[in-house]
Amino acid sequence: MVDYDVVVIGAGLGGVTSGAILAKNGFKTLILEQAEVVGGCCSTFDYQGYKFDTGASIVMITQPLEEAFRRMGKEVRDYVELVPCEPIYSVHAYDGTKFTIPTDIDDATEVISRIAPEDVEGWKRYTRIGLDMVGQLEQMMTTPMNTLSETARLELSHPGMMKYFPYFLRSHQGVTVQFLKNPVIQSTVAFQSYYAGAPPELGLGTLGFIALCEHLGIYYPRGGMIAIPEGLRRAGEEFGLEVRFNQKVEKILLEGNMARGVLLEDGTEILSRIVVANVNAKVTYLKMIGPDNLPRWAVKAIDSYEVAMPCPMIYLGLDTSPPLDAHHTIKTGDLEQSNRVWNDYYKKGIRPPMGGWLISWPTESDPSLAPEGHHVVNFVWGGPAPYGLLGDNWDRLKPAFTEEALKVFESEVMPDLHDHLKVVEVSTPLDFERRLLTPQGAIYGLFLDFFSSAMFRPHPRSRVVKNLYLAGASVGLGGGVPTTIASGVITSDYVLKDLG
Ligand SMILES: Cc1cc2nc3c(=O)[nH]c(=O)nc-3n(C[C@H](O)[C@H](O)[C@H](O)COP(=O)(O)OP(=O)(O)OC[C@H]3O[C@@H](n4cnc5c(N)ncnc54)[C@H](O)[C@@H]3O)c2cc1C
After folding, report:
1. pLDDT tens digits for range 315-367
2. How close is the Cα of 40 to the center of ligand 1, in Å?
3. What is the C-alpha separation between 221 and 109, in angstroms, rounded?
4. Whose CA is nearest to atom 12 of ligand 1?
5. What is the C-alpha to C-alpha distance for residues 445 and 424, in angstroms, rounded to an integer?
6. Distant-in-sequence, close-in-space partners of 349: CB < 8 Å, separation ≥ 6
7. How many Å lie between the centroid of ligand 1 and the Cα of residue 41?
8. What percent of the chain has pLDDT over 90?
């Protein structure tokens, strides 16, 4: 006798997406979430009357979200209001150049021609190739590529993609410098390699075109980023999906090599036909199942993945409008600096000086997130900051780190910050780890490079534990709002195929 058909561990995007779709397909489904709200890294919290997004700050590539709702016979617009952000971002380049990038590619080309006339032809080639490739990839996101045969099948059904194969073997930086020569434009494109959690010289070549995804449109959900997982949850609940909060799963229960439910922190056992884990794959295998219950090769394999980088966030509540001109503003470092942050600081456990940064301004798109006339701003450390600090730790460093970040914000963005600052909250890598139980505060599950993406990542249908499935940033295409929703769709497809 089981209590549920499906138990999902974690109500992050991968968890709510797969849970909602499985509920729609008649499975009695329960999601267990250790926090008080849905969304994990894509959530929103209230602090002294201001609503701050925990991590993710926009959504680009909406196809997986549309697909998730379509699988439930529903429309996104009935559950989530996506507000388009225009311009897509504003740049404060390392050399003092400032410009904004509009969504429309011809208008963006006009901007590039003013800053770097020598790059116009390269930019046009970059956008021609990149937009075609990104457009095709968008359509492929909810199709599995977790084995060689799935990948081959996918390539054959999209023959137009074959010509782009060489880009899969290059680095983000390799693609950037192939098309663009001006260091300011290079730095703008290269900055976004950290959106996937790697420096330009290690980032996947295909992600060299990630900057172009934003030209398909970027959106902010009214009500904060939590509106996306909330919308999915509401849709799922109409089919009987159950979500329980403050429920920490300790262990996945096994019978031989078969998952048969979960054990909660308070000792409660919940039995199910299958378990979907929406937590870091290292936690799933090494803690919730345990090395003793796995073959040696599997322990070695899962051990070999590096967790993704953490990234501290500073949340500011202001009693006036900040002097910004886009939902996102980025401060770039040049290519060399972007790589140095990784090699000379992050990998050595040294906190890098604050060079690049990203500011998200949610009240630009949704004023209801703050009291009338007030604003919220999320200030993101531009790049990785090590979890393990050489000779220090984040709890001790937090006050000095906060002060430094505020100084940078004041000197580079808002000189009268202290006259208008009402609220400051900070999430260090340690805070992320405590709040979301994500190991080392990793914001994208596992590190992503060619050899840890798609078919090289842990499989969404466990190869070693029967009836165990994985969803979220540790599988498929890695971290990100669209990719983790896509992973939830794909995981539900595997379950339906196996049990349907
Ligand atoms: C600072 C930051 C900025 C980001 N910016 C962007 C952006 O602008 N755009 C973008 O596309 N992506 C962005 N991302 C990435 C994106 O938010 C994540 O990749 C994505 O939301 C992860 O989804 P997931 O399905 O892997 O679940 P997660 O978000 O990892 O959620 C997992 C859930 O499981 C719960 N959980 C953990 N352990 C247990 C347990 N033992 N028992 C029960 N529940 C448990 C957690 O509380 C959490 O709710 C950002 C992330 C961060 C942190």
Report:
1. 999 999 999 999 999 999 899 989 999 999 999 999 887 778 999 999 999 99
2. 4
3. 28
4. 480
5. 27
6. 386, 388, 389, 390
7. 3
8. 82
**Does ligand 1 have an atom closer than 6 angstroms to the CB of 484?**
yes
d(CA 456, CA 186): 29
Ligand 1 centroid–CA 42 distance in Å is: 6
User: Which atom of ligand 1 lies closest to the CA of 60?
Assistant: 11
* Helices 63-71 and 227-237, axial angle in degrees (round to 10): 10
Q: 3-class DSSP state for residue 355?
A: coil
- Which has the closest alpha carbon to 248: 434, 28, 17? 434
Query: 255: how many CB neighbours lie within 10 A of its CB?
Result: 11
Token pair, residue 375, equals: 């604003």
Residue 40 CB less than 6 A away from ligand 1: yes
Place of tokens 């901007």: 111
- Quick check: 360 and 58 in contact, CB under 8 A? yes
Which of 16-20, 137-141, 171-175 is the least confident region? Answer: 137-141
Beta carbon of 438 within 6 Å of any ligand 1 atom: yes
Find the DSSP H helices in 72-159.
105-115, 120-140, 148-157
The predicted model gives 450-455 an average pLDDT of 82
Cβ(220)–Cβ(82) under 8 Å? Answer: yes
Asked if residue 309 has its Cβ within 6 Å of ligand 1, the reply is: no
Amino acid making up residue 270: I
* CB-ligand 1 contact for 278 (6 Å cutoff): yes
Name the CATH superfamily for 4-41+224-305+443-499: FAD/NAD(P)-binding domain (3.50.50.60)
Ligand 1 atom nearest 58 alpha carbon: 8
Amino acid identity at 122:
G
Q: Are 184 and 214 in contact (CB under 8 A)?
A: no
Ligand 1 mutation target, pool 16, 36, 43, 279, most atoms within 8 A of CB: 279
* CA–CA distance, 467 with 457 (Å, rounded to integer): 19
pLDDT digits over 66-111, tens only? 999 999 999 999 999 999 999 999 999 999 999 999 999 999 999 9
CB 357 within 8 A of CB 394: no
How far, in Å, CA of 293 to CA of 428, rounded? 34
> What are the residue ranges spanned by the domains of the chain?
4-41+224-305+443-499
Q: How confident is the model at residue 39 (pLDDT cuts 50, 70, 90)?
A: very high
Supply 234's token pair. Answer: 């509401």
